[in-house]
Amino acid sequence: MSIGIIGAGNIGTAFARILARNSIRATIANSRGAASLEALTTELSPWISAGTVENAANADIVLVAVPWGNLPVALSGLPAWNNRIVIDANNPVVMPGYQLAELNGRTSSEVFADLVPGARVVKAFNHLFAKLLEADPAAEGGRRVAFYSGDDIAAKADVAALIDKLGFSGIDLGVLSVGARLAQFPGGPLPGLNLVKFG
Predict the structure, then answer these.
(1) Could you tell me if 184 and 108 are in contact, meaning their C-beta atoms sit under 8 angstroms apart?
(2) In this structure, which of 120, 125, 135, 186 has its CB flanked by the most CB atoms within 10 Å?
(3) What is the C-alpha separation between 22 and 144, in angstroms, rounded?
(4) How far, in Å, CA of 56 to CA of 64, rounded?
(5) 52-64 per-position pLDDT tens digit
(6) Residues 110 and 88 sit within 8 Å (Cβ to Cβ)
(7) Sequence ranges of the domains in the chain
(8) Kind and range of the H or E element at 123?
(9) Has this prediction a pTM greater than 0.85?
């Protein structure tokens, strides 16, 4: 499956690095254009290439990691998602002060899903700090835990397979309305926990 990354901040960059480390190709894009990603793509060549947001959005699996307030603009005007998998790696943080955005009782992933109509949304890769996410997931004789959740069983299975291929131990938190709330930062109990599974 082809992989796209929208957003080249801490999480998008960390995800690109773990893909490259595992010899998986992907296209990364940001709002500033491919030239701004030259240092990163040189570092991660030949596995990670820069493209437009439209290029990244056309992949089979698309990870989105964009500052919360920028998401509507970042995801506007893109081609139809046509049932492709979109990984929501975002957190509803309002700066300054790391305040929780107003979600009107919904999870951030449910709000996010409205911005990618027709996509199968899976929440993943948002609960670890970027330095931990890009570090070797083999830890103390076990594997670092990566949580994921979603409403589409097949989409979750594909993301779980990717999590496993990247060396993490995936744990399914269930549907978005439950799992996304557990993994959401700020507010959820799971973000920032460096858990390791043995055996």
Answers:
(1) yes
(2) 125
(3) 16
(4) 10
(5) 999 999 999 999 9
(6) no
(7) 3-197
(8) strand 120-124
(9) yes
Q: Name the CATH superfamily housing domain 3-197.
A: NAD(P)-binding Rossmann-like Domain (3.40.50.720)
Query: 160: which 2 tokens?
Result: 């779980």
What the block records as the tokens of 150 is: 């979603």
Distance CA 74, CA 115 (A): 10
CB burial class (10 A; 0-12, 13-18, 19+) of residue 132? middle
Model pLDDT for residues 98-113, shown as the tens digit of each residue: 788 999 989 999 999 9
Please tell me the distance from the alpha carbon of residue 83 to that of residue 121, in angstroms, as a whole number: 9
* Length of the chain (residues): 199
Tokens 């500033």 found at:
32
Q: What are phi and psi of 35, to 5 degrees?
A: -60, -30
Q: Which of 156, 128, 123 is nearest to 143 (CA)?
A: 128
